[in-house]
Write a structure and sequence with these properties.
heterodimer; A: 595 residues; alpha+beta; five-stranded mixed sheet; three-stranded antiparallel sheet; 20 helices; 15% strand; globular; B: 347 residues; mainly alpha; 14 helices; 67% helix
Amino acid sequence: MSNSFLKNSKDWQVQAPFPLLDEIHAINAGLKLERQLLIDATETYWIDKQHLVMLMHILRFELMHGFDLCFDLTAIDERVRENKLAEQVSDFTVVYHLRSYFRNRDVRIKVALSASDKSLDSVSSIWSNANWYEREVWDMFGITFNNHPHLARILMPTTWIGHPLLKDHPARATEMDPFTLSDTQQDIEQQALQFKPEEWGMKRQSKTSDFSFLNLGPNHPSVHGAFRIVLQMEGEEIIDCVPDIGYHHRGAEKMGERQSWHSYIPYTDRIDYLGGVMNNFPYVMAVEQLAGITVPDRAKTIRIMTAEMFRILSHLLFYGTFAQDIGALSPIFYMFIDREKLFGIIEAFTGARMHPSYFRIGGVAQDLPKGWDTLVREYVNYLPKRLDEYEKMVMQNSLLKARTVDIGAYSSSEAIEWGITGPGLRATGYSWDLRKQRPYGGYDQFDFEVPVGHKGDCYDRCRVRVEEMRQSIRIIEQCLNNMPEGPYKADHPQTTPPDKSRTMMDIDSLIPHFVNVSWGPVIPAGEVSVSVEATKGIMAYHLVSDGSTMSYRTRIRTPSFAHLQMLPLISQGQMVADLIATLGSIDYVMADVDR
Amino acid sequence: MMADLMPVDFINTQTLFKLIEIAVILGLLIPIAAMLVWVERRMIGIWQDRHGPNRVGPGGILQSLADLLKILGKDEFTPKFADRFTFIAAPIIAAVTVLMSFAVIPFSDTIGVSNLNIGVLFFLAMTSLAVYGVVLAGWASKNKYALLGSMRAAAQTISYEVFMGLSLMGVVLLTGSFNLRDIVLAQQDGWFISTQIIGFIVFLIAGIAESHRLPFDLPEAETELTAGFHTEYSGLKFALFFLGEYLGVTLISAMSVTLFFGGYLAPSFLPANIANMIPALVWFIGKVFILIMFFILLRTSLPRPRFDQLLAFGWKVMLPLALFNLLLTAVLRLTGVISGAGDINHG
């Protein structure tokens, strides 16, 4: 292959052969939809809040091949925005991001709300997974959803005062009074942690028996972080469960509103803390789209290679902990050795290991080191043999099979209903990989397959990830053999300040250099949403720029958030041990859930 | 006061000797169990491509001593909500019942606490009692994880001790005695493992289940029940459970050696002069050590079955297997295909 094999690479663009508006009007001519044109080419329509549910019903059920996935649901506090970009914008905007898998097409619906009437109808009866998203919007913005089954705080503590993502809510401790905790307040906080089954619509006893409630977490060896599940049990059988999240919430979205475009990159690393540069990927691509930066081929290839390395790193950890959750103690140690070797390569590339913050707007932080190809080639030859060993040790172990086959299974339609993406969706036999369906960042130039399962059980979810590692090795090998020459970063004023040595020579270099280094780049006003196939599913950044040095709104759509919401559905009727296997097979990271 | 009630000849040299013997055995068993913790951690470390504890003393050999000192220095904590008396009694029961079982084991031709005629039954009785330690611990803790753990332990132990007992009956049939010393002596011409292979497998699996070791560590399944029945335990009380578990491993290995591997006897194919060079006690310890290694290897290599799978496996596979073994042994014994020690008496 030639050195410039990425030359004809094109990022996926929404092809709109016919406007959606006509289809909707064919069903209901009275609906008043107004189109908004945005940079990311996702069809965006405004609708007034009275007709929202009607429109959503049409989109989901009445259209041929309707929008079956509620990909994201969030809000924007527009009150201090200068470049509103559309005349419909009022004080608040609720944004619905929907996807039709069959059409491979997205649509964005926006509803404007005034500060005096912050309420609209819930769509949780149309998409089951809208439930948690609406709770999050209520928690963060104080927008109420009528007819919502359980509109309570989800990320913040129940005793929290205020709604953090409002522009007038303080973002730093220094903006608030010193923290105190009086005895009475402590009692209130303790009270709030009590679990009252009635509040969740659960009964304490049935006709024949009393249920016991087991508080699994927030500290438990198998919940992979700070995650609490309240189990309603009869003996060891789980009748129902309530996942309680928010223990790992760090306000990543709020931080985005006061970090410069560049200085937010390290924060993205810590969203899915096992994903490393995979987190940088959607963020930098979103900023690049806003600023109109074209990334050089070498940078694209380096990005894909390192992103796939992190996919392997994350999947290896999953593989080991999954086996450990089932009770096999050894595999994780072997897999940590493999991860250690790969971290060595990451360290050689970037200087850091788990959170390299290696991607930059317009490229990557630095060029590959001398001799990088030897390192990568050694690893590419090494890992498949190890995977073969693990195949015998883990995947073919009959005890492990007995514990995971047909356990925690769900169908493709259930997965879509609950917003499951990534390996969790493909394990059900639904072959949908963003890298294939909507190639981004140059993935269309690579030769790889999308592994699928067929049962959607714990075993298949593991099987899919194991195969994905082999495919990632294939991709890395192709990067290795075809690494293009050229710059590793775009030569664009928004991404690269002028040469430092020239700043003392002329004022035209000095001023841009000073501005770029002290404030960071000013990104043009706009709105964009970019997704990638991250290690755990589809991760998306929805960025709103107000034409300043900081993002106006940073929305992070993470895969794990959706995956945990489905837990009650799959855990009903399981034993406690099955739940542990199921949790292990979901492969979530609490930082990715709570942000 | 006690002295008044005792017969005058109570403290004769024989009794004194016996008491010293008991003290020595006790004094050795507990450090051995402690050493076992270190051996296990080192072996698992090596099998998992890492070092294991290697800092305290040469090769880390004093690690258990350091752990013991740490554990003794800990606060003797009993949760306020726990049932205090039972909470303290449980770990004692767990450790004492296992230690009691060692009374019937013939360590060598001369060493052994008691030459009990119903040695096998005594051992089975003690393992049955041991479950009380676990069950009471879970119950007294008033903790849901502990309760679930002890529920599992009760079901698991009750199911598995049924065929643990049955698996030994083949050996008893061949020997015609419940006395463990008789059983060892009956293996002079050939170990029972040669004819009782099914019995041995069933006994070993039941033994792992009785001692709550991976893959049958469900009562304390760390990834599911945090620490299971001993969730609320710390300090010395936790150490007693720990001791009980490792003594349990030693006990099951020692029983397997006694019942199936000729106890303290040297292999019969060795010429007598070579076999006699090595003392009986060494033979015994060596065999036990190999079996313990097998236990440790199992722990590193197998995942854990689910609770209902474990019980189903016990009742549907192990029990029929044990019964089949008993039947087969009886038939072969009656038809004279294999001979046993009882033949001497009855022709």
